[in-house]
Amino acid sequence: xxxxxxxxxxxxxxxxxxxxxxxxxxxxxxxxxxxxxxxxxxxxxxxxxxxxxxxxxxxxxxxxxxxxxxxxxxxxxxxxxxxxxxxxxxxxxxxxxxxxxxxxxxxxxxxxxxxxxxxxxxxxxxxxxxxxxxxxxxxxxxxxxxxxxxxxxxxxxxxxxxxxxxxxxxxxxxxxxxxxxxxxxxxxxxxxxxxxxxxxxxxxxxxxxxxxxxxxxxxxxxxxxxxxxxxxxxxxxxxxxxxxxxxxxxxxxxxxxxxxxxxxxxxx
Length: 268
Ligand code: ADP
Ligand code: MG
Hints:
Layout: E1 2-13, E2 16-27, E3 31-35, H1 42-50, E4 55-64, E5 73-74, H2 80-86, E6 88-91, E7 98-102, H3 103-110, H4 127-133, H5 138-141, E8 145-146, H6 152-166, E9 170-174, H7 182-199, E10 202-206, H8 213-216, E11 220-225, E12 228-233, H9 235-245, H10 248-251, H11 256-266
Parallel strand pairs: 3-10, 3-11, 6-9, 9-10
Antiparallel strand pairs: 1-2, 1-4, 4-5, 7-8, 11-12
Residues 42-43, 93, 174 line the site of magnesium ion.
């Protein structure tokens, strides 16, 4: 079953064309990796799938088969919270800080639970096991403001706890390995890999590095440049080629107008 289907997607931000005819299909339970030079539109793609305001779809469609039936529903003009309800969750490249909101409560909100109140629930039972699962000590983290003063690894773990609470059908991870030390990276990747297996969850991962891939077992990798997917194929073959030769190999696949801009951005 096609879970997510993106056809000829064009997106502008503040009048700037960022996605230029992107096509992508993700089936239930599949793990896809997207890599590409900085500024190629990877985060824009994730924000457009999620429906973040300001990401204007000027052409094309995003459909998601997350509802009660297996038929795809067009997301183009659906608000962000409805997309989340359908089963799409994201771990942002730069997780936000939210002062005044406790981590336990944002995890509970993600799972559609009421805020914690000791009279109703003497011992907090929703966020606590999820924090333990992602390796954050609940006694230390539950009552802290979301993201405030967290290290890079702690931020990513806190985001992943929110994703697990939401039990999504599609999780989108925008550079889950950015700013995370190698040991934390391994535990985060193991947690994510187990979740994907247990829930038959589809996953779209954006990364520049291969470290987490053995744990997440991607089915396919895509090279993105200039707001388009230029090449799709075996993840380990594509990574090896990029590590050896960089992205220059793929620039020949860019349409001419877009290629000039990408080369300027890469300072070739
Ligand atoms: P990537 O994640 O691949 O590094 P992004 O999707 O973050 O790339 O950005 C793609 C392009 O869109 C970049 O040129 C970036 O400067 C531009 N862009 C992203 N967000 C905005 C914004 N809010 N306003 C203007 N331009 C933006
Ligand atoms: Mg990005």
